[in-house]
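User: Teach me something about this protein's shape.
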Amino acid sequence: MLLPSDFSLRAWEYVFSPSAGTWGAIGSSLCIACIVTLVNILICLPAANVIARVNFKGKIWVEGILYSPLIIPPFITVMGIHITFIHLGLTETILGVILAHIAPTLPYMLRALVISYQTLGFSWEEQAKMLGAGTLNRLRFVLLPHLLPGIVAGSSLTLLVSLSQYLITFLIGGGQVVTLPIILFPFISGGDIAIGSAYTILFAGIALFSLWLMNSLLKRYYKTRILFIR
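Assistant: First, the predicted structure itself:
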């Protein structure tokens, strides 16, 4: 049947009950995703600058390594990470999950910033330097305003990919790091479908809200900047 035979709030009552641990899972998911996004920005800003605007020997191999998580099956990647993290004592920790989430999310941030850097060139920075702008002022008034759309695009993809990670979180977290996909998966794979559906709607709502928030902040930034210039 396409439509349910009856309607009930039972699933939602369970989802938001204290015993379900939903709020803790949402907090962990958002915390991990935000930290991963920040780390990716810090790594990809200089990396994208070099890849987009500097020619060097072996550049294609460096790009291949950085983009490889998009090509290599996730299970192969996470098994190698898992074995390494066992020796380093990073399994069953939030730090380990954060580091593991960087692998599948970094290529998206890198690609977005590479495209932004490729449309920038060096002329604007050189003109700002000739006008007396120092390194920090060039970064603040020339680089970041131009790169901001790429940062937002990469951050949006990073947040969505990190929020949706189940396999990596399950293997590296060992059940000790509980995120929303960890709670959702058992209900979808053979448990209570109604509760699984409620968690799915909740997950989709969080993802859409995150995208809306980033889009709103970007629009507000440009609106404020235009008023400041005027």
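Now, about its shape. The radius of gyration is 21 Å. The mean pLDDT is 84. If you'd like, I can walk through any region in more detail.
User: That's plenty for now, thanks!
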